[in-house]
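User: My instructor asked us to take a sequence, write out its structure as C-alpha cells, and then describe one feature of it. I'm not sure where to start. Here is the sequence I was given:
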Amino acid sequence: MTLQAEEILRHRGRIYPLTSRPLETCADDSLCAYVQALPMRCTALHRGYRGTWEIKGGRLWLVDLGGTAWDHTGTTLRLDDEGAPSVQPALPMFAEWFTGDLESPRGEGAHVAQYMRDWPFYRVFCIERGLVLSSHLRDNRPKFRTGAAAGARLFRMLDAVYAGETP
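Assistant: Let's start with the prediction itself. The C-alpha cells for your sequence are:
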C-alpha cells in the first residue's frame, strides 16, 4: 500500500497536514456526488480527493476540493481532464456536518512503516457542528518512539527474510 496523502489545514496563516477526514461524515448529496465522480488517478489518495480546510472565526470551512494529484509543494492540482466532474461545489463551505476531533500533526514526521507516518505532536481541535470548541497540543513522543522502533525492527526482519536469512 502507498503512503496516503493528508488533507490540508490552514490555520492562523500557516498550512499544516490534517490526518482527520471531516468530509467522510458529510451527508450533502451534491458534494458526495461530486467526490464520487472524481476519477481516481493516484494510488496515494484512495479516497479520491484532497480537501483543503480552514479554521477561521472559530469555524471549520472546506475551502478547496481538488482531484487526486498534487505537486511537490503539497499544493492540490486541478484536474480538468476528461472524466472530471464539470460542476464544482460552491466553496468555501461551512462544515456544519462535522462533529469530532480534528488532528493536525506538528513537528518532523517519520515513516513508521512503508504506508504510515507518525508525528511527535498533534494539534487537536474539538469541533461540534463545525464550531471550534477548544484545541490542545497532544504529546505523541512516547508512542512515536515506540512505533518508530517497532517499524525499524520489522524492516530489519523483512530484509533478513528477503535475503534468505532466518530472523
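For the description part of your assignment, you could build on this observation: DSSP finds two helices and ten strands in the chain. Try explaining in your own words what that tells you about the chain.
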